[in-house]
Structure formats: structure tokens, C-alpha cells
Amino acid sequence: MPKPNAAGVSRLAAPLILAALLAGCAVGPDYRAPDIALPDEWPEHVLLAAEERSEWRHWWRQFEDPRLDALVERAAAENLDIRLQLARIQEARAQLGLARAEQLPSVGAQAEASRDRTPATTSPFGVESTGNTFSVAGQLSYEIDLWGRLAREREASEALLEESVFAHDAVRLNVITDVVATYFDLKSAEQQRRITESTLESREETFRLEQIRFDSGETDELALRQAQSELETTRAQLPAQVQRVRSLEGALAALVGLSPAELFDELDFGDTQLDDIALPSGVPTMLPSTLLQRRPDIRSAEAGLVAANAGIGIAEASRLPSLNLSGLLGTAAGDASDLFTSAAQTWGLGATVMGPIFDFGRSRSRIDTAEALSEQAEAQYRATVNLAFNEVRDALVSYETSGDRVEATRQQVEAIRRTQELAEVRYREGFVGFIEVLDAQRALLSAELALAEAVRDRLTATATLFKALGGGWESDLPGEQPADV
After folding, report:
1. Which stretch of DSSP H or E encloses residue 119?
2. Alpha-carbon separation of residue 53 from 72, 301, 404 (angstroms)
3. How far apart are alpha carbons 221 and 47 in whole angstroms?
4. What are phi and psi of 136, to 5 degrees?
5. Average pLDDT score, the chain
């Protein structure tokens, strides 16, 4: 193809340069973050230890349980909710690529070949003729973004991508917290089952001894039947506890992404006992205002607000005229051998201005819709912030009180255990009846089960606080970094 002369290039480029200078006048409101009244600091009665942040990047490792670490890693890789969010990120990234491409010219090529016959009855000279036409051309089309519609669409697409990324982070944080909490539930249920099994063995031994005492005439049938009743009551508790263990195993298996075949195999989550799990003494300090940058659900809601705000500009720009430029440069001839010769050169320039005149309120309705969606997004953002701070408040209270509950329950267990020992001694010596021994045994079983629940609640409260504060911490750097959950 012959090179176009300088004059042709100048004529082609001049409108594009002029249009580019006119572009960039974006209509619609620029985004401004909503003003929200935040507390200056957390409640004074809550003291959080200031630890090195790099140690808390993967916060679940603070429990020092390799089995739990492995389960979290598998859940992060295999959980279906997380994988769904990853697919949505890919979709949003593709949409952003489309929005970016819409701001650039579109260049295409076209080649045609045709043969037609002109009958004598329509020919000016009354002579029949047959001819060929060959053409090759390059085409360029470009929409000048006079009012910033394409820029707003790109802004919205970038915000939607951020929304998807932070939504993924929020889902990942929720899944990891659910894995940790369910793992603690499982270990607590296993401990309660072991306590009941141990108590059942003790009840069987007590019943055996009472049977011997009854056979030798040292006690009456009432004491024997009381021992038997306590034995059967304890035995009746065991199936429900076994069922709870199995249910929690299934729930944990689903969270970490086990396949249906694996779900029906024998599930093994290790032999770690509840008391073997380390309990972090605190979490790194942070200011309440930092929560807006650390919580992925807040970041996701704000990104949605940015996208909705950009939607107003898109709707306002759509009611204004649009300017489209087109250009063509090619060659055309009646014989293929004449293509790409100077005589066959062809070119063309065009400009199109389009805009609504009377649309009977359609454009206004689009703007009203976009403004309403923006108001909804802002309300959703504020609700998300309020919910986040309420979750932090509840988590801090639970974190503080659960430790006191564990200590109080431990002391209760020790006191009741000593009471049972004294009751058994005094019963053998004949100073108290067998009912006092049974009361002490029942109280001890109840207290030991409550202690297992209290330890679980303390561990769960710690995990919940991590989640409420936005997950793990990066190493100390100038400025706050996004949480690595």
C-alpha cells in the first residue's frame, strides 16, 4: 500500500488532536468519603498488648497448633465460597479491561472483491458490460470522551474490581474464622466426650462397689439404685456428645473443602486436646479510625459507593451529545494488479455528532436512578461501618469477660473436686449418706463440662476479635497497610 502524503496525514490527525484536547471534561460529582463520627480510642478498660505486628500476619498461628494451621491453609485454597469470589474478581478484571479499551480508538481492516453485470437495458450506451471491483482498506473509529462518560465507566469498573477484591478478602477472613471457631468447637466436644467417658467409668466402678456393699449388707437397696440411676444418666449423655463430635467433624470438613468422597471417609483432625492450644495474651494495638482501612467488608462497601457515584456521571454524560470520528485509508481498483498503486489510493474522514432532543424523561430517569443507587450505596456503607464497630465492641467485651469466666470455672472445678473427695471419705466412714456423694459427683461432671465450654469460648472470643479487627497485621511500616487475612 502506498504511503499517504503529508497533507493527508495532517488532515487525518488534526481532528483527533483537537478532539483529544476537548476531552476530559467529566460531568457528575467527584467521590468524597462520607463523614462518620468515630471514637478517638477503644474503651479504657480494654488493654490490648502491643506486640510486634509481623508476628501476627497469620493470626491463627498464634494458637500454636500445626493441625489448625494445615486446616486453614487447605480452606484458603479449596473452600468453594473463596473460589467463587476469585472467579468474580476475574470477571471484574475483565470488565475493567473492556472499560479501558473503550477509551482507545478501534482499528480494523476490510477487504472486498466483487463482480457484477450491467445489462444493456440500463446502460447509458445500450451496451452490456461486466466488471470487477477489488478494495483493501484500513478503518479507524474513535469516540471523543467530551463529557467524561468513558472515564466514569472506567472509574466505576476500577471501583467494582476493588469491591470484588475486598469482598474476596472478607469472605476469606470469614471462612478462616469459621474454620478456627469450628475447630475449637470440635476440640471442646471431644474433651466433653472424654470427660463423660471417664465419668462413666467412675460411675461403673461406684456401682460395682455399691453392689458389693449391698450384697454384704453394709448398705440398703436405695443407695444401690441411686448409684445405678446415676450410672445410666451418665451413659445416656454419651450418644448426644458423640453425635455432636461427628457433626462438627462434618462441618469442619465442608469448610476446608473436602470432596464428597472424603466426607464419607473416616475423618481425622488430629489428637490435639483443648488444653494443648496456646492462648494469645493480647493483640496488637490500633486506633479506631484505622478500622476503616483494615476491615475488608468496609473497604468493599466503600468501593461499591465509589462505583455508584461514578454511575451518576455516566448517566449525566449519556444525555449530552457524543462525538465520533472515523477514518479510512485504502486502495480500490477494477483489476487486482492495480491495487496498491498511487492511482488506486482512497481515503476518507468523517465525524458524527449524536444526542437526544426529546426522550420524554428517559435521561432524567436514568440520572434519578443513578442518584438513588448512590444513596443506597452510602447507606449500605454507613450500615457496614456501624455493624463493624458494634462487632468490635462485642468482641472486646467477650474477649475480656471470657478470661474471667475460665479462671472462675477452674476454681469451681477444684472446689467441687475437693468436695467430692471429702464426701466420699465421710460416706465410707458413715457420717453422710450416699446422696451427698452423688450430688458432688453430678456437680463435678457439670463443672468439668462447663470448663471445657469456657476454654472454648475464650479461644473463640480471641478468634472473633481478630476477625472484628480486620484479620492479621503486616510488619510496622509508615502508614497502615491493608490486613493480610
Report:
1. none
2. 20, 26, 26
3. 58
4. -135, 130
5. 83
Question: Exposure of 394 by Cβ count < 10 A (0-12 exposed, 13-18 middle, 19+ buried)?
Answer: middle
What's the CA gap between 391 and 382, in Å, rounded? 14
DSSP labels for 372-415? HHHHHHHHHHHHHHHHHHHHHHHHHHHHHHHHHHHHHHHHHHHH
Q: What is the Cα–Cα distance from 77 to 253, expressed in whole angstroms?
A: 13
- Give per-residue pLDDT as tens, 422-452: 998 988 888 888 888 889 989 999 999 999 9
CA–CA–CA angle 91, 93, 99 (5° rounding)? 105
**C-alpha–C-alpha distance, residues 365 and 72, integer Å:** 48
C-alpha dist (Å) from residue 55 to 51, 241, 465 = 8, 37, 16
Rounded Cα gap, residues 300 and 288, in angstroms: 18
Whether the CB-CB separation of 292 and 387 falls below 8 Å is answered with: no
Q: Which residues pair with 143 in a beta bridge?
A: 324
Which amino acid is it at 414? E
Query: Cα 255 from chain centroid?
Result: 14
**Distance in angstroms (rounded) separating the CA atoms of residues 160 and 184:** 36
**Mode of pairing for the β-strands spanning 322-333 and 129-144:** antiparallel
CATH no., domain 6-117+131-468? 1.20.1600.10
Interval 102-136: pLDDT, tens: 888 888 888 888 888 878 777 677 777 788 888 88
d(CA 106, CA 367): 29
C-alpha cell, 376? 443506597
Nearest of 420, 162, 433, 388 to residue 289 by alpha carbon: 388
Which residues, at least 6 apart from 167, have a Cβ–Cβ distance to it below 8 Å?
Answer: 85, 88, 296, 297, 300
DSSP E strands, 187-252? none
